[in-house]
What does this fold into?
Amino acid sequence: MDELQVIVGCKNKEGKAQKALFDSYSYAMLLLCLRYVRHQPDAEEMMLNGFYKFFTSIAQFSYTGPGSIAPYLKKIMINECLMFLRKKDGLKIIDEEHAAELAANDSIISRLTADEIFDLITTLPAGYRTVFNLFVVEGMGHKEIAELLQVSEGTSKSQLNKARIMLQKEMRKRGMYHEE
Amino acid sequence: MKNSGDKIIRQQVDTMQVSFDKEAAWMRLQDRLESKDEKKTPFRWQWAAAAALLLAAGLWYGAQGPAENTIAVQQATPDISQPVTTPTHTNTEAPQLIVNDPVTPPPAKANGITTDRNLTRDHAPVQENNSIAETVEPPIAMEQVTPTEKNTPPPVATATPKLEVLHINTVVEEEKRERTMRNSRYAAEKINYDEIFEDPMIPKNPFKIYISRQN
It folds into this structure.
């Protein structure tokens, strides 16, 4: 069953098609949610909420070709996670315009495992973590992030910079980071 | 500015391994999706069923209502020799009227009352002669002044109604007399006032003059 058939089946509320789509994307979406909300039960709930919204409002989705489902689903999941964080933690991002670009040390990061990176990300406070995830992992620009979080671009840059500094500190603490 | 470190992070986070029961999660999601669908379906069925029931009830009421009604009234008027109006000529009363039920108080409708009066007179026990029965039994004097009997000749007057009529007549006459006197006095006063206001020599204080004239 290709993607188009799956989408057509989902639009016709066919359980088989829905299951196929869920099997294909649920794990990736769970990882995405985990990066934002940290705890797996919460992440699973967000992922299920996202799929539920996708299936119930699938009429609004227009399939444009292979690979067009994942970005749409990601958007839904990110929105779900942000809503959850706003409700639970408040997700307060303080406006800070002074941001200096801080380049990540690639050689160190490339030596880290996925679990280590995930652990490091989850140590960040919600605001820093969200901006870091949106910029580094999702590949969004500062303008897009600023619109999504309703902050200024400068704030987004500042939050990202602070997130990087915090990550370096955490890596130093764990003995992963050494000044070269 | 995106650097290669970010790219590595992006690649790495997607390869992360977590324990995840996909089937259980799917079951949960399926339950939610099905419950949403179920919520919709019985809602439509409920409306359809309710509409059908209402229609059936309406049809039954239309077909059965008047027939039962007549039977009930016939049962309720065992002695047709009584000079009272029987409700057989109208079909507007409630169809479930059970007149012989000693527990249920009769409704305060015209036909029901008529039937009840019969029962009170002939069959009903004394303690059942409640307030409704009292209001139903009108005194003869009241019946004389009802507008429905305007064209009928005055009924045979007993002692009590005659006195009442006489009393009413005297009261009316007294009131008439008083009203005539009052009107004539007002008329006189008006003329006086007019004269006073027309006369420029007299100061315009009618109250004072009125008192003086009265004195």
